[in-house]
Fold this protein.
Amino acid sequence: MKWLFAAMVSMVTSSALAADASQGLDRIAAYAGSWQTSMHQLDTPYSKAGDESHLLRNDCWRSAGFYACDQIVDGISQALLVFLYDAKTGNYSSYPIPAGGAPQVQPGRLDIAGDTWTFPWDVTAQGKTTHFRVVNVWRSPDSIEFRQEYSADGIHWTLMAEGQEVRIKG
Amino acid sequence: MKSLLLVVAFAVSALALAADAPQGLDRLIPFAGTWKTDSQNYDTPFSKADKVSSTLVNQCWKAGAYFVCNQSVNGTSRVLLAFTYLGGDSYGVTYVPADGGHASSGKLIIAGGMWTYPGQQVNLGQTTYFRNVNIFSDQDHIDFREEYSTDQQNWSLMAEGHEVRVR
């Protein structure tokens, strides 16, 4: 799931860059390709401290209103991300499908504001809702900075992880 | 002795066929393409009588652990099907609707030329089982039926029809 997450981050970031030149689903195409990723995680109630780096490849395909990417981490296919775009509202949604299959696939949201692309989601346990988000900031078409945060009120956010992705060319 | 020889010969042929037969996700390749479909739906608690003809297009892509198809009906993209191989004759299928609605997941079981999509729903504590059975008579012809059951032994027909590959 972590890699699915990381991949989403990467995808979002790349899309932002493409946003300048492309519209709708075509923005997401910026995510395709190979990336060197590095991530630093912090100790929080929802994450454990650690450092990781991986090679991520997004093998992508578009058909009509679907943009799908097979996320391959260190050579192993881990998740399929399916993106949709609603031209009426300008909203994006994403469906992460793990390689082993899943009884339920929860759609997620993608909010784009300039070079900042955000994946927000909520988790409710014992009547208490915790907000999470992955924020991707495109520094260039080939470089993404990302962070994962959580919040109890949706206003004050605590860092869980941060990292960067650099496109591997050639 | 003649019978034994025949049995051995048959076993060798079967093994040769099995070796040539596609495995894993490659078994799904016949699903791709353009199909002319005709179906007859019947009145049941879960279906309404109707006769429908349509053109179905499955535009597919195989990547890593997935076989993915955009399914269009009469020129309109309706759903993306993402298949994963679970081992043996079992496949997972996730359906992502083109309108951005909730995705759903199910299974596909392939036994020879018979592809079965089983499902179930629970309403007020009562489980109803469904299945969509596709029988490939060859690579270009499919007979299908949709059925429901409360005991998985006696099945009631909801719809039936056939599909012919156009290309």
The beta strands of chain B are 33-41, 50-63, 66-73, 76-87, 90-97, 104-111, 114-123, 126-138, 141-149, 156-165. Chain B has a mean pLDDT of 90. The first helix of chain B runs from residue 2 to 20.
